[in-house]
Amino acid sequence: MKISELGEFGLIGRIAGILGPAPADVVVGIGDDVAVLHVGGSEHLLATCDIQVEGVHFRQDATTPRQLGRKVAAINVSDIAAMGGTPRWALVSLALPDDTAVAFVDELYKGLEEQLRWAGAAVVGGNCSRASGEMMIDLCLLGSVQPDCMILRKGARVGDSVLVTGTLGDSRAGLELILAPLGEVSEAARRAVTERHLTPRPRLKEGQILGASGMVHAMADVSDGLMSDLGHICRAGNVGAEIWMERVPVSEACLEIAKGSGVDPLTWALAGGEDYELLFTVDSRHVASVADAVWRQTGITCTEVGRILSPEEGIRAVHPDGRCLDFTARAGGWDHFARGGNEKRGMKT
Amino acid sequence: MKISELGEFGLIGRIAGILGPAPADVVVGIGDDVAVLHVGGSEHLLATCDIQVEGVHFRQDATTPRQLGRKVAAINVSDIAAMGGTPRWALVSLALPDDTAVAFVDELYKGLEEQLRWAGAAVVGGNCSRASGEMMIDLCLLGSVQPDCMILRKGARVGDSVLVTGTLGDSRAGLELILAPLGEVSEAARRAVTERHLTPRPRLKEGQILGASGMVHAMADVSDGLMSDLGHICRAGNVGAEIWMERVPVSEACLEIAKGSGVDPLTWALAGGEDYELLFTVDSRHVASVADAVWRQTGITCTEVGRILSPEEGIRAVHPDGRCLDFTARAGGWDHFARGGNEKRGMKT
Asked: I want to staple A313 with a disulfide (CB 3.0 to 4.6 A). Which of A126, A240, A247, B179 is the partner?
């Protein structure tokens, strides 16, 4: 059997079975976006890694090396942010063809450094290897979190409100523009969505505020797409959920690009992925106070987009006219290896 | 300018310049094999990563996935061992072609798990991505070390004896056999050297004994080759060194393969690499007691193979007949990107 037939969660299940139970010093192991480790101090250590493969995650003709450096740092910072944590140290693994320009490496590291410094972290090591084919950048990011501020994927409760920071769909709109440029789009919209795709801004401060609020039950970043990442939260917490489509926040820029492309922008907002917003659940009574805390300190809006249901109710997106799109079967997230699935991204083990 | 023209240490220097000074909580940053981080507890955190790229570091027709898993774990364990540390947690980044067999991934993880369990560590996370071309496995290994047991590359003192554990050259002999099978070789020798190449045994216990001895001034593992890794120690400590060729320990199996191949086995022992033995320096008065401590607890022999010299004396390998091979110009190690250099391996930043 090929991994594309087994699918993502089948593969994770197999791997978890091979690896056996985690040692006692592993607070959270395989299955969340970030490993949580007990290192003996008052804070937990966080560890995550994410890879960018040429031809799969990026094309050299569509991104500058500096943007690439920023992005690979940002997607890892976003994982730490979604735990309520603080990024600290990064290790960088590069596999580069022999004929890579030194200027490319310079710019790549400038981008890494810019994004990591913004997040309070620093590159402390790594390794560099020849690539036989495409180049590849893997970043391992370590961070820390106060145990009582840590938020996991699991923990959502039936009746919780589902909230998301910022707007969704922009990154996918940017990707579409990069892959198939449109003539009739304003420069402002074009720039807004391509920047969202090429140099995402992780919601680090927002994650820390949410972690410190003591009111958030479960959280993930929107890397695979809203419905997919909601699926992760539902699977981890053994709950269902519904998303109210008309409430999903979509930017003016995304609306403009979608209109120009003849696409329903909700498609991108529900399933586009790579927005690196935060998706979280709170008791419905706390929606206003949590959203207000984030808005006051960061200027970022949190929008209530749905509700946590019992597991039997499945996972669905509800149209204002009452139609439902059922995502239950895909509750585990897009199958990154399944044929016809979302082929851009990787999956966390 | 291409990275192959700039060379390894030019590139590391550029990267270090871009990244700027390390934060205060970084005890050892870029430049050693392992980053050492202050996490607040009584022990330091160690972090290292090493990548295996298909077509560069391994070929699927020459290794089983289980061997590959063991090896990628072993080379990282070896880095932690060379600090006197204890491996704890691993993150695994995979980039796999869509048509990778599930059985391949199963076996890869079994190999990882076997070698990590042997070392007292566990896989706690990672991610899995599609590869556009060759597969790639990157392992980030975290460990811990008591600050007073930690040994760095730097610290060698003029007059120190240079010692190495076990035997050198076997891994290269194994690689040569894999690349170009010889008919007239005993099965025992063939198995011994190919196992050394495909499933190296990191000197973990030995490194911990050396770290706890309080007598070792500098240490590295022999991954690039004896003279190259000695160059790392010399560069880090601003010293020179000489290796006495006739003292370099070479196994019977390696001698047999070299004879069959018509090669001087010292070539493999001095420059072959991937032996994952430990190379370290101690005050000459402590050679016997250090070697005895390792031998009594592990059965592994430590051999005195040379001496640390003043930096002006350079780095050389001395033949019994008095001839010297000068490695000073290569004191920084083989240029992994330089044309004609050792193209199998990567470099640490």
From this structure: A240
